[in-house]
Amino acid sequence: MLEVDCQPAATRVEPSIQAFASWSIVAAFGAYFCMYAFRKPFTAASFSGATVWGLGEKSVLVTAQVLGYTASKWIGIRVIAETPPQRRALGILILISVAEVALLLFGLAPPPLHVLCLFLNGLPLGMVFGLVLGFLEGRRDTEARTAGLCASFILADGVTKSVGTWLLQQGVSERWMPGLAGLIFLPPLLFFVWMLTRIPPPDEKDIALRSQRSTMSRSERVAMLRRHGAGVFLIVLAFLLVTIARSIRADFAPEIWRGLGTTVAPSTFANSEALVAVGVLIVSSLSVVIVDNKRAFFTGIGVAFAGGSLVLASLVGLHLFRLDGFAFMVLLGLGLYLPYVAVHTTIFERLIAMTRDRGNLGFLMYVADAAGYLGYVGLMIGEGFVPAEHDFLRFFSVTCGVVAVLTCASLATSWRYFARSVGALERRADLP
After folding, report:
1. In this structure, is residue 11 part of a structural domain?
2. Using an 8 Å Cβ cutoff, are 317 and 328 in contact?
3. How many domains does the chain have?
4. Range with the lowest mean pLDDT among 194-198, 304-308, 312-316, 422-426?
5. Which structural domain range is residue 104 located in?
6. Which end of the chain has fewer surrounding CB within 10 Å, N or C?
């Protein structure tokens, strides 16, 4: 039965709550930031001129890792939904250890076996996000905490590529650079995971405002999707679309920058993504001030729609008004990450809180993530992986334009669907 939260916002936040919230943001940001060092630095290498099975080596390697990551998301639909809180930290450490071993084997293995190593690298990493997210959900300030987590993968994407570029400039080979980058980030990873273990569970007020979160059996997962199937499908579709464009932007950033005529320095990736991270963090965390779950849910959909519109605006600015390459990448990044992060921080979190369904945020996020990465893999395979570099900017622009239009349409339809379904439930609740 639908329950709409009408409790007033607290006039003062207790110091202990503020302290634990800050601790949680730092811990989640740091842990997931470090995870990216085991996944993304290899994309800073160009593998120029090299081929595997007659295809460009980098395209094959990116696809292999994404295939592993995609499989991890599908496995995670069950694993994340069923993992109890006390096993999360150990799970993170085991998964990242397996990923690092795969990177070291990547440096050792002869072609084409090194492709399998990157598949094995991606296979465990896709479940790390859900384990970290479990420490943050179901709290009255979840959006702020989760926005900090999401800022980590925006910023880390650029910073870890900068680290990879720096290692290459120091003479480290393209095959050994990814493993060495991971080893550099291993000590801070251990510290941040320890921080995660010190986060207390949600208190009574959190549960009253956001509902109790629990593990989910298979029947409970199926029941949730049946109750909200069409609406969830539309949100997942929008998420799939922006995942495709966001992943292309992340995995082929050097090619996009060169297509824009911008010289790529180690700091280029970090500087652009830092601005994107700050903008998305500010917008996404503001929804924490909206106490009413229904209002916050629809605000989240509105923010996501605005992001799709910003993608279109950035493309128009680039091709019609000669927008600077750096400004284009920042605006495009904001447009792609706003809907991507809104789903992570607000939309699914408030859907559970609004409906009081038994379940957890990790399950819905992994349904969306699994679909998103499967769509990305399908696109790469359908396109013969990716076009030649001299055509890449055009390919990327067309893809982003299509993604933006379809994303806005899907989000607008989901708004209409949930407005009707929530309204119907509220009318039933008012009947004598």
Report:
1. no
2. yes
3. 1
4. 422-426
5. 17-430
6. C
